[in-house]
Design brief:
There is one protein chain. By secondary structure, this protein is of the alpha+beta class. It contains 24 helices and 13 strands. The protein folds into 3 domains: 162 residues, Beta Polymerase, domain 2, CATH 3.30.460.10; 150 residues; 47 residues, no CATH class. 53% of the residues lie in helices and 11% in strands. Strands 3-4-5-2-1-8-9 form a 7-stranded mixed sheet. Helix 8 packs parallel to helix 10, helix 9 packs parallel to helix 11 and helix 14 packs antiparallel against helix 20.
Length: 474
Amino acid sequence: MDPLWYSTRAMPAHRRIGAYIANTAPLGLLFKLTRDIPSAKIALTGGTVRDAILGVLPHRAHVLVRDIAPPMLQKFLHANGVVTKHTVGHWHVTPRGTNETISISIPHIRSMTRGGTVARTPDSNASLHDDLAGRDFTVNAMAYSLNDGIIIDPYGGLHDLIGEKVLRSVHHPEIHLSQEPTLVSRSLRLASQYGLRIENSLWRALGRHHAGIHKTDHDNDGNSIYVIPRVRLGHDVLLALAHNPEYFLTITKDSGALASLAPELLQHGGMVHDDGQTGWQKTQQLLETLNHHETSRTYGTTKKSATLLLAGLLALLDDGALGALRNLVTRLHLHHVDDHRLLFDHLDTAWMLKNAIELAQSPIEERSIAERERLVRGQRGAELLALTDAYISAKNSSSMGRENLIALRQDRARWLNEPAPNELLRGRDLLALGISPGAHLRTYLEKIRSAQLSGHLKSRAAALDFARYLTTQA
């Protein structure tokens, strides 16, 4: 039995964290630190404590070390692992003998930048409570002492997390969001990830301060830059979408933050479909279908694919879907988001949008067998079929789209039971026959592949003869 699964049901919160520590090999480095330097005070902090309490495997362990001089701590880390200096007083360490990285820092305190925003700066003389006081939300302002085996929770984060299930700011929300605008997207992301209600005063502050995510400053060369890197906003949006797309869409829209984060989606509000439902209602239905366990079981998709869910968020914009995707990718730098949890590729999102909309409108007979194979093989094919199914259902589309879907599902079922045959010819083979380069090469290869999949071509020699025949028909 998975110890984390068991711990969430049978253990108090501090025991849940203990189960996580016992099953996380890189944290053995911390016990070596206490043996080598007994004066060191060590605590897990922030999201690590939050996730371990919920039985969720943390993305990365965050550790706070006190009562040890930073040079001594850095020397110990270099002697016991591979160190990447993240910022001053903050290191990423891969302990020797493991392949997981943990984050280790000395205490940080809140300070104001010259641009009027908040930063966290290292202070080796600060206490654990000083560090927690500089955190954003109560659910992130908890710590677990490895020295004492207790949870330190000065702001009631444990009760907010598993009792009230509410996201509450450590500081006054109006002041906090105006000074730290990155909390706009972070609050929406955390609420979506963990199914938390946003506390009333924080909710009102979101409505008033969401435009702050576009606040600019100047770098040392005098160039105008965004206070919040665009890729951080994109990461928050994709992570929220991947965990709870319907709730994320609801709270982002209702708080007013959608106008700043993804104004392209506001087009849904001006759409009324044939059955009288709005674009918002239809999109909610589509996302619910994609995120439902029955869809995952039918098509073999993963519920946390941001590639698929972003396509679902945009699909009902129809002809405007690809344009909206391009704008989102450019403005939020989605093409630079790098997080293995997200399963995201914006090019695959574009491919799915284009093909799902076409499959609902054009007869499948117009597609060659080779093209149909490309559509349905692999995980991308599974996600395309799931999106097409949800799109057709939401649109109450004509029978053509449903017939296309049935035909492609049958193709996929047949091809899943057969290994994909190796291609008989490639472009270089056609060039070797003396065929001139150009777009016609792709057409020839498609016809050859279709004939192979139909069983008419079974050898390389036969494929070469067919290629020669095609050139005479050109």
